[in-house]
Description:
It is a single chain. Helix content is 32%, strand content 21%. The chain is an alpha/beta fold. It is built from ten helices and seven strands. It has a single domain, classed as Vaccinia Virus protein VP39 (Rossmann fold, 3-Layer(aba) Sandwich), CATH 3.40.50.150. Residues 23-42 have low confidence and may be disordered.
Amino acid sequence: METQEQLKELVKQKYSEIALQDKETNQASCCGSGCCSTEVYNIMADDYTELEGYNPDADLGLGCGLPTQFARIKKGDVVIDLGSGAGNDAFVARHETGETGKVIGIDFTPAMIERATQNNEVRGFNNVEFRQGDIEKMPVSANTADVIVSNCVLNLVPDKDAVIKEIYRVLKPGGHFSISDIVLEGELPKQIKEVAEMYSGCVTGAIQKQVYLEIIEANGFQNVTVQNDKAIVIPDDISNNYLSAEQLAEFKQSGTGIRSITVYAEKPLAEKNCCELGCC
């Protein structure tokens, strides 16, 4: 079994390759895993083209939701995009926050930072920057961001609790986040899990939906809300190569599966003191 550092290195290597690919190559699957389906649609990513601030050059087709659509970004906000890739969500956020705000993209992969920076230079945005860093230890001071967004990234991180703690640290009191991610509901049958992981690399690090929400609440966030929730369905022309008709039918009727959720939560305006927590 790989250690956390080995898993991170695998992610870095994989996304260094993806940074050099185009959207069409990545969109054939999730997270650029490269496994193709004859059913022509992307099972994960939603359509960004209707969002103001969308830049096709920055869209690698790697997301699993539209967190910026739900993020309630206001003019003048400081926004941080975790796992910013080529800059897709960062540029949408920049449109929302305007010239008086600021957007900071953080990505683990140097090749992604280079591509995003090039995209930014072409557009001449002086209030968008991209920083290389581990989102378990963000290169950002405490109480910096009004809003944090992220799109299909936390599932790739071994220590999700550490990321949520960092989000709490970096948000201003009263700030909030909107994060799209992949989660599981129920235990996937072994064959289904193997096929899902083969077809969509994002599923590998996904955890149970309820556990995901519990981690957020346990770290002090309030008003935790699932803003969007959709099933991720692996095309039958992929599943049929590995599963019998009976196995596939049984899974579809089981109520278990893979889901894309967008979660909203707020950092309290003030920390609760000891007496408020009932320990006095």
